[in-house]
Amino acid sequence: MATVNIPADLETVLNDAWEETQRVPGHLTENEARFLGLLAACVPGKGAIVEIGSFKGRSTVMLAKVASHYGHGPVVAIDPHNSDILLKTEDHPEDSSYRDFLGNIRAARVSNQVEPHLARSMDVARSWERPIRVLWIDGDHSLEGAKGDLDGFLPHVEPEGVVAFHDALNVFPGPIRVFVEDVLGSDRFGAAGFVHSIAWAQYRPEDGGAFRDSRAALARRASRLFPFVDTGKELRGMMKRRYKLRRYLVPHSAISARKWAALVDEG
């Protein structure tokens, strides 16, 4: 396995990328954005960064700014740009976030680093043949949607690449269940964790068994959230308080580049 290389200028690059990223509307927090930037800079291997779910380009800009600085492969941004949740399309079915997305990546000067696909992720997956270094899943948060995205693109993730889900610690049924059952429960994966609501794991198909105990410990805590998110409905009252307590018990603090590197190198 390749040792993770942490660039000497990483902190400066992340600061500059965040300055551009925070101008773009979206739900990605600063610590989550910085973690994505860390992945874009430090995940070993070659291949594309595949982003499923771009909305107006907040995570796209962060990934593309960092990847461009270090001469890494493109950010392939896949989104039909017609989310009924984000755009309230039941009132205006013609609405799209695509124009805003294109404007935001132009304003951030990363258009040349981004390959947009105005399409459903499953349609792109059917003909996908390129290697993937980072698979960032932030699309359909249903169980079927999250599992379909993982199953559709995982065969192309390079060994030592990283798979990450957004909103795994928010009240959605798909990301947390797919992460626990299909990722933490599989010896194809190595080091894993949470950073705020991002769930991540390194793809280690040859030696993931060395991380089985740490993955299982994380899965035990995270699986306690299942009863609260399975319906996908907003939580209220005592249910909401119980959910927050169980979420608090799942380690999900921001992580430094050195600590992250130590986790993935330890196997």
Features of the shown structure:
single chain; 267 residues; alpha/beta; Rossmann fold; seven-stranded mixed beta sheet; 12 helices; 7 strands; 43% helix
In CATH terms, the superfamily is Vaccinia Virus protein VP39
The strand order across the widest sheet is 3-2-1-4-5-7-6
- Provide the CATH topology: Rossmann fold
Write down the Rg. Answer: 17 Å
- Share of helix among residues? 40-55%
Determine and state the CATH class: Alpha Beta
The number of helical segments is 12
Which architecture does the CATH hierarchy give at level 2?
3-Layer(aba) Sandwich
Quaternary structure classification: single chain
How many domains comprise the coordinates? 1
Word description of this protein:
This protein has 267 residues and is of the alpha/beta class. It has one domain: Vaccinia Virus protein VP39 (Rossmann fold). The chain is 43% helix and 15% strand. It has helices at residues 10-21, 30-42, 58-69, 84-87, 98-107, 121-126, 143-153, 173-184, 212-222, 226-229, 237-248, 257-265; strands at 48-52, 75-78, 114-117, 132-137, 157-165, 189-195, 198-203. Helix 1 runs antiparallel to helix 3, helix 2 (30-42) runs parallel beside helix 3 (58-69) and helix 8 packs antiparallel against helix 9 (212-222). It is globular, with a radius of gyration of 17 Å. The termini are close together. Residues 89-94 have low confidence and may be disordered.
Briefly characterize the structure.
This protein is an alpha/beta fold. The protein has helices spanning 10-21, 30-42, 58-69, 84-87, 98-107, 121-126, 143-153, 173-184, 212-222, 226-229, 237-248, 257-265; strands at residues 48-52, 75-78, 114-117, 132-137, 157-165, 189-195, 198-203.
